[in-house]
Amino acid sequence: MAMATAAASSCTDATWWAYAVPALLGADTLCTHPALLAFALLLATASAALLAWAASPGGPAWAHGRGRLGAIPLVGPRGLPVFGSIFTLSRGLPHRALDAMSRATAGGGGAHRARELMAFSVGSTPAVVSSSPATAREVLAHPCFADRPVKRSARELMFARAIGFAPSGEYWRLLRRVASTNLFSPRRVAAHEPGRQADAGDMLAAIAAEQCASGVVILRPHLQNAALNNIMGSVFGKRYDIFSSGSGAGAGASEAEQLKSMVREGFELLGAFNWSDHLPWLAYFYGPSNVARRCAELVPRVQAFVRGVIDEHRRRRSQSSDAPDDNADFVDVLLSLDGGEKLADDDMVAVLWEMIFRGTDTTALVTEWCMAELVRHPGVQARLRAEVDATVGADGGCPTDADVARMPYLQAVVKETLRAHPPGPLLSWARLATADVALSNGMVVPAGTTAMVNMWAITHDAGVWADPDAFKPERFIPSEGGADVDVRGGDLRLAPFGAGRRVCPGKNLGLVTVGLWVARLVHAFEWALPEGAPPVCLDEVLKLSLEMKTPLAAAAVPRRA
Ligand code: HEM
């Protein structure tokens, strides 16, 4: 009702041109001069847009009083008419830009209101972002924020049928149930340890070879190979010999290359900012990334690949009537579902393909950030290595998942990495309000608003974390005055996996994998900058996740021959 009234009033304000121009020129004049009529209409539309923008904190997408539905109105930057804040957000580091914008808005008298929730416009998309743990919790936990806005690239790449983008109805609940009871259950994660260990072992051997050949290791490709193989093993039950290259490349190397190129293309398409998602009219004039064409080319390749894997599994299963054991891959698990849980082949393709996407880059890049911090902080690295050695033995076997669970300093190092460099600084994929949502601070977020949480702003807020720019794992060790923070969505001061109904279902797998890899990398090598190298560069680049702009290059000195 409030919205309707506001809409009506802004309409009356803005259309005076349409009445004034004929009055000034005479109605006959306008009818006989179509060009003049078109000009008058254009002027009326432009003035309506300008007035609506000028009267709307949050910018053009917040016209018609959308931001004033609650007792406490929303505040936020107006940005530019029509475009809002799109230019600030489409390039650079949007989490930092939004953090700065919310501080600037709060300084203008809104006293922390913009930190709690700030309205802004991405073209015609109304958006809010929270930079405070309390409001972020409300947003993430509220049932009316359980949908996600679906970008064009995600829709065209079939993700609307996958867990991450499916609307929060019965189908999505079924997928979540299957994920928690089957795909990511603690038993399944534990049963996949041998695969994780094998991938880590191959990675360490490849690192040792590169160190021996060139005296320095670019860690990222090793982590990416291990992550891809690890997720391929868990999801498709397939592993490739991708650690050797050229003539040494093993069986399936070309299939692995194909797969890598599909994953790379998908990452680019999903991570790219698509202007026409927010300015639909622009699609007629401008499409620099050719999203539609590239998606149309990629989808059949993905379908052929994933269907091939599903068919292989079907053939194998037709020869055995055994139920899948704990070590079964995701394809076998999905094929074994029955009755109401059974998925159509297209849906299986979407679910499986999404897992490959979600699971590959995140674990690799968290491990890379972690190792970069360990190179920058030799004291932290030495203390961590001492803990690993004390748990496993310096010369003995290699760390296991069970060892990792008994290493509080390692857990603290991983948490501090997630705090300093949250892989999804805006929690990657936003939420969508499906109804008007009243928050406890008196603000109301109207239906149709895209809602984000700026996790980076929260984890770098000096009011939430003391000395936020310093890398200090001790802040998570209670016996040293730190806090025992649950990073799996229970404490919004540090929720890198999100929270609420759409919290990351792969969080345990992600944490176990990163913990094991860091333990093994530190157990096997001493990591340092090569002689004369410049300091580690912590500059960021935000693609689908937050990556190091310059890949880490370090000397990995083997600890034993
Ligand atoms: C360190 C590793 C990881 C991080 C930091 C991470 C982070 C996230 C975040 C922030 C979200 C959005 C949560 C929200 O909206 O509240 C998410 C969702 C999701 N993640 Fe992860 N993730 C990781 C690993 C994984 C892995 C290994 C998988 C699967 C193989 C996975 C699968 C998913 C899926 C399917 C969703 C969508 C859930 C839904 O919308 O219902 N993630 N993740």
Report what the structure shows.
With 561 residues, this protein is of the alpha+beta class. 52% of the residues lie in helices and 7% in strands. The protein folds into two domains: 2-154, no CATH class; 159-558, Cytochrome p450. Strand 5 and strand 6 form a beta hairpin. Helix 1 packs across helix 4 (34-54) and helix 14 (253-271) crosses helix 15 (291-318). The longest helix is centred in the middle third of the chain and has 32 residues, at 345-376. The radius of gyration is 26 Å and the shape is globular. Mean pLDDT is 87; it is low at 1-22. Bound molecules: protoporphyrin IX containing FE (HEM). Residues 140, 163-164, 176, 231, 354-355, 358-359, 362-363, 366, 423-424, 427-429, 496-500, 502-506, 509-510, 514 line the site of protoporphyrin IX containing FE (HEM). Protoporphyrin IX containing FE binds next to helix 17 and helix 22.
The helix/strand class is alpha+beta
Distance between the termini: 75 Å
CATH fold name of the largest domain? Cytochrome p450
Q: Give every kind of bound small molecule, once each.
A: protoporphyrin IX containing FE
Specify the number of helices: 22
Judging by the overall fold, what is the CATH architecture of the largest domain? Orthogonal Bundle
> What would you call the shape?
globular
CATH superfamily of the largest domain: Cytochrome P450
The biggest beta sheet, please?
Answer: 4 strands, mixed
Radius of gyration: 26 Å
As a percent range, the share of helical residues equals 40-55%
Strand neighbour order, sheet with most strands: 1-2-7-4
- Overall domain count: 2
Our estimate of the beta-strand percent is 5-15%
CATH class of the largest domain: Mainly Alpha
* Poorly predicted tracts of residues: 1-22
Assembly of the depicted chains: single chain
Mean pLDDT: 87
Q: Work out the number of β strands.
A: 11
GO molecular function: heme binding; iron ion binding; monooxygenase activity; oxidoreductase activity, acting on paired donors, with incorporation or reduction of molecular oxygen
Family: Belongs to the cytochrome P450 family.
InterPro entries: Cyt_P450, Cyt_P450_CS, Cyt_P450_E_grp-I, Cyt_P450_sf, Cytochrome_P450_78A
Protein name: Cytochrome P450
